[in-house]
Amino acid sequence: MRYGDEMNQLSTHKPIVIDLFAGAGGLSLGAFRAGFNVACAAELDKHAIETHSYNFPSVKHLQIDLSTTSSNDLLSLAVLQNKDIAGIIGGPPCQGFSSMGHGQVDDIRNSLFIRFFQFVSEIQPIFFIAENVLGIMNAKYSFIRQKAFEQVTNYTILPPLMINASEYGAPTTRTRVFFIGYDAKRISAMSEQDFDKAKCSQEYAVRVKDALEGLPLDISTIIDGNGIIEPMYKKVEIKKSPFHLRILECIPDGIGNKQAIRNYLHNNIVTGCMPTKHSDKVRERYEKLGYGKQDKVSKSIKLDPNGFCPTLRAGTGPERGSYQAVRPIHYAVPRVITPREAARLQGFPDWFVFDRTIWHSFRQIGNSVSPIVAEAILSVVHHKLT
Hints:
By secondary structure, the protein is an alpha/beta fold. It folds into two domains: about 15-205 and about 370-385, Rossmann fold (3-Layer(aba) Sandwich), CATH 3.40.50; about 210-365, DNA Methylase, Chain A, domain 2, CATH 3.90.120. About 30% of the residues lie in helices and about 15% in strands.
């Protein structure tokens, strides 16, 4: 779809969803592309909601704590009524369930998974989709899952779907679990097989080299009289492969920053090409490292151009020490990948703008649902509604 001045207005005939714990907007982007309107996005993190607001100007944005917000207040702030909402989607915080963390059962963030289902119970949408890490399926969290599902006994709930992003056309092996439920009185029946059919065939599987094609390799810093300038903006060579056409040029009504999209479509300009500084010694190690091998010091894995990217990690927020996640090494140059390269590997289009800092950009990308996966799943649901 072409992007013009008439856009950034929501189409009134499309079914409405609200995105809880919305992050930077991976699920929201997939929802728009699947044929939904995202009327409201709620998120506590300041930087994430700013990124969401920038890329989804037609959406009502709420920077709120959902653990203390009632459903009535949520709907009032969003200027919505229960009857308007077809679905509730979201990715409740997963850090408490992650195998990379401490895995504490009493982590306060774990209760937000239950809170998501309470919103579903109180608002009664036609369907819901909740995404989380595989760790939530650990037996020690069974009572949390049980308590969550007890909130929605009037819904038909599918068995948890373990979804590997590479099977749906994303260039990453990132695997997440999706909890999907629906009101059988208001939508056609769904099954696990419906979502299996949404997978792409192996011949259309997207590898690292395909995904990163066209992005600049030279991202060295520019020095001027005032010191170092980080090159946020870089020229990209626009390709016309099926992958690039799918994720880069599909711009539904109501999303995208106008100026960022014009820069991309007319000038081939992308953001997020910030470099990470490496010493000569580190670059020498990275140069010698084989594809798919891990650097013994940094623990970074060198990407295999003919393989898939491993799961991109988010690191921790300020409340947990602000630790940066280990970043993969580019297969062609001796450096870790840029935020823009990470975004491509996660399935985000080049016109999607993340935070201006490397740290927050990687946190937002690492915490996000792949828009490619989100679109595939929500397209199944959209078809069942129509």
